[in-house]
């Protein structure tokens, strides 16, 4: 069995060797050498080789004739082949000779094909690289021209479109690396231009505000045209400017880029608007650049923060702003310029600033502005400056109101300033009135021609038909003070009216304001000035008389002032809410003060004359002939006559009261001379001299120095002094006068003095009883005692009349009894 298997295996190996490639026979042969039947396999192999040799031999024997024939034919063909070879060689030589030119052309063609392919590839690459290079070149040109917003747009296109198409080239890598730096450079440069813009508009805000205020002033003068927003471009124009974003403004940094344009070459009759003065392209550029960079919020916060800081600087007034109007004007111009810029930015940008932000800034500005104006205006004492300031505030408010800002608080503040303006006016008119009073000569105005008369009647509404009929030259009853004061009253009313203009007040409110201010002028300022003139030390009776005449005419002119105010305010004087002028009461009070001063001065002058009185109370009885009045009294009467002659133009009651007051004062003063405690005895001679003086006074009273007294009314002032004459002996009738004298004493003692005499003497009486005697009653008792002594020494009483008088040295000299 083993041999059979081995033989089968060897057969298989042989078949495999016959059928397998010689390169793969190694593993087969190795399996033979690894076995134990190597020799057997060799025998098998030899047998197979011999079998194949026999088959080859048979095959060769079978095909030998054909082989021989083939060799024979081959030998025949060899000659032909040699010929063909030579022909081919010859042809090849000719072909090679002829193909050299073609091969050169082919090589050239090949080179051209390669170049063409390279050119096509290069063109394709350049088609992607050239836009990058062109874009980068444009970027560099825009950067040099400082057109940063277009440069940023170019940069975005270069980064996201062109560079990805160009491929990975070194220059593309360099460009890609430079893009962040260029973007940062653009952002920083745009921010630098914005800072320059903010600094420029801060410096030139007064110029911007001045232009806007001038536009508002021109707008107010155009009565026929409707009110339009002042200094603001149309929304389409502003939107177009904002859409451009400054991208089309490619000029290098100049005054335009810093924010302020040069408008000096424009025509004088055309006032440029704020947008014509300011180039807002830096704002638009920076806004668009930061928007593209995704930093819009950062830019908005920065812009608003910087503008808030500038607002605080603008709203800080100068310390000496109140000294000149130019200081206020510069302050207002800066504020207007600031808010004109903010309003323009609000309407030409989308969300950079909003209405709430602008309103917040305006509220801050309004509070600080009002506080500053209240503080600085309080230092002002010039009404012209206050009036100019008011007009400037009104123009400032109208300007900002044209831009949509609420300004009602400014007008409320102007109404508060009206009180201050009134006080300043009162101070100025106080000085004016005092100057008028100091310069007045207190004498009637002489008028020699019709022109002079019309001049004064044009200044003061004088209505006196009798004076009109008098021929020239003539005198006006009042002094220069009256027309000047009346004109100053009208000037004051005009000054009050000027302040009320453009305050949006009704006619009734204006009328009420003027009337209240005029009342203050009359009741406080003019009244004090008149009191000052009346109370001056060097004022005389003639001046006081003229003051009374002047105040009388001014009082009569009050209704003309009422009509004057009504005419300029168009408010009827009889309207329900119309305030009445207090001029009548003011001039009445001044006239009463002047009258009282006349009485006081007249009595003081009388006292000066009476101080010259020097009676000799122990003078001897006169011999024959009538006694003359004392010299001082003669001079006093002459003075009174000359004085009362000046009182002809005074109202009758004033002159009568002055005359009666003077006579009573003379009578009282002479009575006090008699009651002087130092006078202990009075002789008949002294009584005769006093009686002569009393008669002189009575003669003056009978002469009627002032018209209007009925009968002997003026003589009643000397009725008490007339009793002195009863003490004088008058010849045969002296006994009768003595009896009358003692009867008079009896009546006085029992009915007037006895109730006081019966009291306990002061040394023994309590304190309450000692007050029973007044100083006047004790003096009068002493006077009666002196009269009694004098009469007793010169005229002994009849035997049936007994008189006892206590010695003057007795401690009970104040007690006496008539029996």
Question: Could you write a compact summary of the structure shown?
Answer:
By secondary structure, the protein is mostly helical.
Radius of gyration: 68 Å
- Distance separating the two termini: 220 Å
Helix content: over 70%
| Total DSSP E strands | 4
Describe this protein's structure.
This protein is mainly α and 819 residues long. The chain has 28 helices and 4 strands. 71% of the residues lie in helices and 1% in strands. Strands 1-2 form a two-stranded antiparallel sheet. A two-stranded antiparallel sheet has the order 3-4.
Provide key terms for this protein:
single chain, 819 residues, mainly alpha, two-stranded antiparallel ribbon, 28 helices, 4 strands, rod-shaped, disordered C terminus
Which SSEs are present, and which pair or pack?
Elements: H1 2-19, H2 26-34, H3 38-144, H4 148-166, H5 170-203, H6 205-221, H7 235-244, H8 255-258, H9 274-277, H10 281-292, H11 296-314, H12 325-348, H13 355-377, H14 383-402, H15 408-439, E1 445-447, H16 450-459, H17 465-469, E2 474-476, H18 481-500, H19 507-535, H20 541-556, H21 558-569, H22 583-610, H23 631-646, H24 652-674, H25 684-702, H26 734-757, H27 767-770, H28 775-794, E3 803-804, E4 817-818
Antiparallel strand pairs: 1-2, 3-4
Helix pairs in contact: 1-3, 3-4, 4-5, 4-10, 5-10, 6-12, 6-14, 10-11, 12-13, 12-14, 13-15, 14-15, 15-18, 15-19, 18-19, 18-21, 19-22, 20-22, 22-24, 23-25
């Amino acid at each position: 069995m083993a041999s059979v298997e081995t033989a089968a295996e060897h057969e298989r190996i042989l078949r495999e060797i016959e059928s397998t490639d010689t390169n793969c026979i190694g593993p087969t042969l190795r399996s033979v050498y690894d076995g134990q039947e190597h020799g057997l396999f060799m025998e098998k192999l030899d047998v197979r080789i011999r079998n194949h040799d026999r088959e080859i031999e048979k095959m060769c024997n079978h095909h030998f004739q054909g082989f021989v024939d083939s060799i024979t034919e081959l030998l025949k063909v060899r000659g032909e082949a040699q010929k063909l070879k030579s022909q081919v060689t010859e042809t090849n030589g000719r072909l090679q000779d002829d193909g050299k030119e073609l091969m050169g052309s082919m090589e050239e063609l090949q080179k051209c094909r390669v170049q063409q392919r390279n050119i096509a590839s290069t063109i394709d690459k350049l088609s992607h690289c050239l836009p990058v290079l062109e874009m980068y070149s444009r970027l560099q040109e825009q950067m040099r021209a400082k057109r940063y917003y277009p440069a940023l747009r170019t940069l975005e296109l270069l980064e996201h479109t062109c560079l990805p198409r160009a491929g990975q080239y070194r220059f593309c890598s360099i460009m890609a690396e430079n893009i962040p730096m260029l973007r940062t450079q653009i952002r920083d440069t745009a921010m630098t231009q914005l800072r320059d813009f903010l600094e420029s508009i801060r410096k030139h805000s007064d110029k911007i505000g001045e232009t806007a205020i001038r536009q508002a002033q021109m707008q107010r003068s155009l009565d026929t045209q409707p009110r339009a927003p002042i200094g603001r471009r149309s929304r389409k124009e502003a939107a177009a400017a904002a859409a451009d974003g400054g991208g089309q403004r490619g000029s290098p940094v100049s005054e335009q880029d810093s924010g302020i344009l040069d408008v000096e070459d424009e025509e004088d009759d055309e006032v440029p608007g704020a947008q014509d003065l300011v180039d807002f392209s830096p704002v638009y550029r920076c806004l668009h650049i930061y928007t593209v960079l995704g930093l819009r919020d950062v830019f908005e916060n920065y812009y608003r923060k910087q503008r808030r800081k500038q607002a605080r600087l603008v709203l800080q007034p100068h310390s000496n702003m109140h000294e000149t109007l130019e200081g206020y004007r510069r302050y207002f111009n800066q504020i207007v310029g600031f808010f004109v810029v903010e309003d323009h930015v609000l309407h030409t940008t989308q969300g950079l600033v909003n209405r709430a932000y602008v309103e917040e800034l305006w509220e801050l500005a309004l509070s600080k502005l009002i506080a500053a104006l209240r503080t600085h205006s309080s230092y002002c004492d010039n009404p012209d400056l206050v009036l100019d300031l008011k007009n400037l505030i009104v123009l400032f408010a109208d300007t900002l109101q044209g831009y949509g800002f609420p300004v009602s608080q400014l007008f409320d503040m102007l109404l508060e300033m009206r009180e201050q303006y009134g006080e300043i006016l009162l101070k100025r008119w106080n000085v004016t009135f005092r100057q008028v009073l100091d310069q007045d000569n207190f004498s009637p105005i002489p008028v020699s021609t019709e022109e002079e008369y019309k001049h004064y009647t044009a200044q003061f509404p004088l209505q006196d038909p009798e004076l009109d009929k008098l021929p020239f030259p003539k005198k006006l009853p009042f002094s220069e003070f009256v027309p000047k004061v009346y004109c100053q009253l009208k000037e004051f009313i005009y000054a009050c009216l000027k302040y009320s203009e453009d305050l949006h007040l009704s006619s009734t409110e204006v009328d009420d304001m003027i009337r209240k201010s005029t009342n203050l002028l009359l009741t406080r300022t003019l009244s004090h000035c008149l009191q000052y003139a009346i109370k001056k030390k060097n004022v005389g009776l003639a001046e006081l008389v003229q003051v009374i005449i002047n105040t009388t005419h001014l009082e009569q002119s009050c209704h003309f002032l009422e009509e004057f105010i009504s005419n300029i305010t168009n408010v009827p004087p009889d309207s329900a809410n119309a305030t009445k002028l207090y001029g009548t009461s003011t001039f009445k009070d001044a006239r009463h003060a002047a009258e009282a001063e006349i009485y006081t001065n007249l009595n003081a002058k009388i006292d000066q004359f009476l101080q010259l009185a020097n009676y000799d109370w122990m003078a001897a009885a006169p011999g024959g002939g009538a006694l003359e009045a004392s010299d001082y009294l003669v001079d006093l009467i002459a003075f009174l006559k000359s004085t009362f002659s000046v009182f002809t133009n005074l109202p009758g009651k004033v002159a009568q009261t002055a005359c009666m007051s003077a006579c009573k004062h003379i009578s009282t003063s002479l009575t006090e001379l008699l009651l002087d405690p130092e006078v202990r005895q009075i002789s008949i001679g002294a009584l005769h001299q006093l009686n002569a003086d009393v008669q002189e006074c009575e003669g003056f009273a009978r002469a009627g120095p002032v018209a209007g007294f009925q009968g002997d009314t003026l003589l009643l002032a000397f009725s008490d002094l007339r009793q002195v004459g009863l003490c004088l002996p008058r010849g045969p009738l002296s006994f009768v006068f003595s009896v009358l004298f003692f009867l008079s004493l009896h009546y006085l003692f029992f009915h007037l003095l006895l109730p006081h005499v019966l009291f306990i003497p002061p040394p023994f009486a309590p304190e309450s009883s000692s007050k029973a005697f007044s100083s006047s009653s004790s003096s009068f008792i002493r006077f009666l005692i002196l009269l009694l002594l004098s009469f007793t020494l010169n005229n002994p009483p009849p035997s049936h009349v007994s008189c006892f008088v206590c010695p003057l040295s007795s401690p009970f000299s104040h007690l006496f009894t008539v029996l």
